[in-house]
Design goal:
- The chain is mainly α.
- The chain contains two helices and two strands; from the N terminus they run ααββ.
- It has helices at 5-27, 32-68; strands spanning 70-72, 79-81.
- The chain has a two-stranded antiparallel ribbon.
């Protein structure tokens, strides 16, 4: 999940924000618990965003891999798998090459 640049940037930005909030809690001890809760929510939100981003990226890669396994049908130009012997849309028989 952390091999791409965007995830590292989000993580670094979240850690800097949490560090600033930690320093604020040291300077203002009367509201330290509120600042701590805000930092905790930011960290949890950051992890959720990173997981969503990672899942979206995985789905995009799966879609690209699936397109590599597909070819257009010679009769109706619909995308079908290269291993299909008949088109599921127009029911045309396809010769294996």
């Amino acid at each position: 999940m952390f091999e791409n640049r965007e995830a590292k940037f989000l993580l670094l930005g979240g850690m800097i924000t949490i560090g600033v909030l930690y320093l604020l809690s040291r300077w203002y001890p009367s509201i330290a618990h509120i600042i701590f809760l805000i930092a905790l929510f930011i960290f949890a939100f950051l992890l959720i965003i990173l997981q969503i981003y990672y899942i979206i990226k995985l789905f995009k890669h799966d879609k690209l891999d699936q397109k590599k396994l597909m070819t257009p049908c010679p009769a109706c130009d619909a995308l079908i798998y290269k291993t299909d012997s008949t088109c599921p849309y127009c029911k045309t028989s396809i010769r294996s090459s």
